[in-house]
């Protein structure tokens, strides 16, 4: 992919690009890929917990976008439509393989936070170890979380999406999204709290 | 404000999805409720940790685009016309509607008023021909020619012979 591809775009420009892609412009489709592939890749990665699956799912998502983009009526809704397709692809894959993420805790997939840099500026080994352990707790908590909590939690916390935008992706009411994120936060807090108590 | 409602609002606040009025109402509650204030502090700590975790993002490997590109830019096969399109319920439904409309049209055309009139005229002429002729009329009425036992009526030929 050429490095000159944009990572941000104005709504007008996005509209033109989507319309171009709808008319079959491969250049515009490529532009859309460069704009959103990182977001989608990270979104599915957070949901499935494996980089290998995330690669396949990102690929499937954009191939589906390429096939279906002509059916998209409102170009301004492209981002939500794209996330929705990615989310559906994740669920379809899980249904196909009949393998729920809950049972893949000890598989060979790379954990989410194995990649994380140390957040603290100091290099205290004890803190690093603590952070790594906390990361693993977070990883397991996300994997065992009910999908409807995990989706909205990942979108709100890791993708910094507004609750209004999340409702467009998950097709649920604002109240339901708020409550589910709240419950997901409680689950994460409980898991971290339990770990901290054990550590003391 | 109820404590349970405030806790949901705390979560919403941490995701910056509260408006100014809601924030003010929540702050007032937190000042007067130690339990919710403690909950807020705990959530804030978790949120800081999550922000650190969330800031990290992976770059998608370039192979993903290469694979996509190779699939979408693949030249269609010489025998591509033999490949059926993917089954789509919308197309199936549209096909059914078209089929029903065509069938209905053909049915209507096949029983057009003109054809009905012709058929009636044909029937009328037959009735005149048969009913107007006493011999043929008799033949039509008798069941002898149908070979039904016990229902035989007088054969008009025999009657004619007996008169002679």
Task: Give your account of this protein's structure.
The complex is a heterodimer of chains A (200) and B (164). With 200 residues, chain A is mainly α. Chain A has helices at residues 11-22, 26-48, 51-68, 78-97, 125-144, 147-158, 163-170, 174-199. In chain A, helix 2 (26-48) packs antiparallel against helix 3. Chain B has 164 residues and is mostly helical. The radius of gyration of chain B is 45 Å and the shape is elongated. Classes of the chains: A mainly alpha (200), B mainly alpha (164). The interface between A and B is large, with 43 and 33 residues.
State the gist of this model.
The complex is a heterodimer of chains A (200) and B (164). Chain A is built from 8 helices and no strands.
Helices and strands of chain B: which structural class? mainly alpha
Instruction: Name the helix and strand elements of chain A from N-terminus to C-terminus, one letter apiece.
Output: HHHHHHHH
Assign a percent range to the helix content of chain B.
55-70%
In angstroms, what is the radius of gyration of chain A? 18 Å
Mean pLDDT of chain B: 73
Specify Rg of chain B, calculated over alpha carbons: 45 Å
How far apart are the termini of chain B? 120 Å
Beta strand % of chain A = under 5%
Count of alpha/pi helices of chain A: 8
For the termini of chain A, the CA-CA separation is 49 Å
> How many distinct beta strands of chain B?
0
Spell out the CATH superfamily of the largest domain in chain A: RNA polymerase sigma factor, region 2, helix turn helix motif
What is the mean predicted local confidence, pLDDT of chain A?
Answer: 82
Parts with pLDDT < 50 across at least 5 consecutive residues of chain B: none
Q: How would you characterize the largest beta sheet of chain A?
A: none
Structural class of the secondary structure composition of chain A? mainly alpha
Name the helicity range of chain A: 55-70%
Which fold does the CATH topology of the largest domain in chain A refer to? Rna Polymerase Sigma Factor, Chain: A
Q: At the first level of CATH, what is the class of the largest domain in chain A?
A: Mainly Alpha
- Summarize the biggest pleated sheet of chain B: none
Sheet-strand content of chain B, in percent, reads under 5%
């Amino acid at each position: 992919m050429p490095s000159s591809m944009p990572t941000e775009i104005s709504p007008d420009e996005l509209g033109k690009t989507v319309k171009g892609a709808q008319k079959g412009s491969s250049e515009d489709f490529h532009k859309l890929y460069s704009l959103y592939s990182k977001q989608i890749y990270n979104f599915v990665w957070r949901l499935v917990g494996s980089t290998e699956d995330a690669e396949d799912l990102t690929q499937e998502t954009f191939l589906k976008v390429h096939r279906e983009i002509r059916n998209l009526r409102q170009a301004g809704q492209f981002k939500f439509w794209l996330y929705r397709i990615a989310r559906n692809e994740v669920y379809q894959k899980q249904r196909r393989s009949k393998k729920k993420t809950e049972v893949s805790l000890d598989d060979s997939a790379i954990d989410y936070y194995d990649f994380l840099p140390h957040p603290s500026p100091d290099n205290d080994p004890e803190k690093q170890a603590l952070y790594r352990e906390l990361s693993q707790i977070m990883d397991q908590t996300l994997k065992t979380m009910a999908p409807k909590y995990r989706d909205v939690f990942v979108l709100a916390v890791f993708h910094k999406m507004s609750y209004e935008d999340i409702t467009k992706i998950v097709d649920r009411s604002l109240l339901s999204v708020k409550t589910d994120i709240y419950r997901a936060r409680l689950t994460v807090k409980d898991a971290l709290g339990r770990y901290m108590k054990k550590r003391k | 404000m109820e404590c349970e409602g405030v806790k949901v609002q705390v979560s919403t606040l941490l995701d910056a999805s509260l408006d100014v009025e809601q924030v003010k109402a929540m702050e007032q509650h937190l000042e007067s409720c130690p339990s919710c204030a403690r909950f807020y502090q705990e959530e804030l700590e978790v949120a800081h940790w999550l922000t650190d975790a969330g800031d990290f993002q992976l770059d998608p490997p370039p192979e993903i685009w290469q694979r996509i590109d190779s699939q979408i830019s693949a030249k269609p096969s010489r025998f591509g016309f033999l490949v059926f399109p993917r089954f789509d319920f919308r197309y199936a439904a549209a096909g059914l509607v078209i089929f029903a409309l065509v069938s209905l049209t053909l049915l209507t055309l096949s029983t057009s008023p003109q054809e009905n009139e012709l058929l009636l005229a044909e029937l009328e002429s037959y009735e005149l021909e048969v009913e107007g002729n006493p011999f043929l009329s008799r033949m039509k009425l008798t069941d002898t020619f149908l070979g039904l036992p016990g229902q035989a009526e007088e054969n008009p030929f025999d009657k004619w012979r007996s008169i002679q």
